[in-house]
Design a protein that fits this description.
alpha/beta, Rossmann fold, 6 helices
């Protein structure tokens, strides 16, 4: 598909698998034209796009490293030429590289922050001129409850996601009067390709059930729409109650 669209246009990073793929499917089902952005998983990205098209949705697939400024600039410029607008940006792409701080090299720390924090900053900066011109836009950042209850070795990851939540609040203050809404969704434990290798560090099967990607996509779809117009600069926890439920056998404070 290469024609301009009359639908609202959404850009979803990390859209080939897990939470990102579920968000792409949901937004397409809601009638948005979805630009799925991925970095490595060619087959997975094509599979999600095929599923969306089979259900009558409109989807475009783009390969880009969201942590690289030149690639972000090329990506957003191409999307604007292709679809003529960008109404929704979902900053979902992220990486985990868990290791104890004393064993973390500077390059490893910087890579986590570059993908998880600088990437959303680059993309937000790239789409803002269009959203400001439209006087309408939604930017939804995907954080993590590791900001509040990090597992062992999650210093870099928790710091990057904490920074992302601060970015949400700061940008919401800057552009809130311009019809643009910036919010964050913070998942709890969600079964994805990225979390499976660290499931033991995230508590195994203790506590509330693990979530599935579709548990997040409804919240993102709501924040992407008109009904969320009075919501600004907020972080929404979607974790099955993990933050408020004591472990069995735990003692009260």
């Amino acid at each position: 598909m290469t024609a301009l669209t009359n639908r609202r246009v959404a850009v979803v990073t990390g859209g080939s698998r897990g939470i990102g793929a579920a968000i792409c499917r949901r937004l397409a089902a809601d009638g948005l034209s979805v630009h799925l952005v991925y970095r490595d998983a060619d087959d997975a990205a094509k599979r999600v796009a095929t599923e969306i098209e089979a259900e009558g949705g409109e989807v475009f697939v783009h390969r880009a490293d969201v942590a690289e400024e030149t690639e972000v600039r090329t990506l957003i410029g191409g999307i604007l030429r292709q679809s003529g607008a960008i109404h929704v940006l979902v900053n979902n792409a992220g990486i985990i590289d868990d290791r104890l701080l004393a064993l973390t090299k500077l390059a490893q720390w910087e890579r986590v922050l570059k993908v998880n924090l600088t990437g959303p900053w680059l993309l937000s900066r790239a789409v803002l001129p269009t959203m400001l011109e439209q006087s309408w836009g939604r930017i939804i950042n995907i954080s993590s409850n590791s900001v509040r209850i990090p597992g062992a070795g999650q210093t870099a990851y928790a710091a990057s996601k904490g920074g992302l939540e601060a970015l949400t609040r700061g940008l919401a203050m800057e552009v809130g009067r311009k019809g643009i809404r910036i919010n964050t969704v913070a998942p709890g434990r969600v079964r994805t390709d990225m979390t499976d290798p660290v499931s033991a560090q995230l508590g195994g099967n203790e506590g509330p059930r693990w979530g599935v990607p579709e548990d997040l996509s409804g919240m993102v779809a709501f924040l992407a729409g008109d009904e969320a117009d009075y919501i600004q600069g907020q972080t929404f926890t979607v974790d099955g109650g993990r933050l408020v439920m004591r472990p069995r056998g735990g003692k009260g404070a």
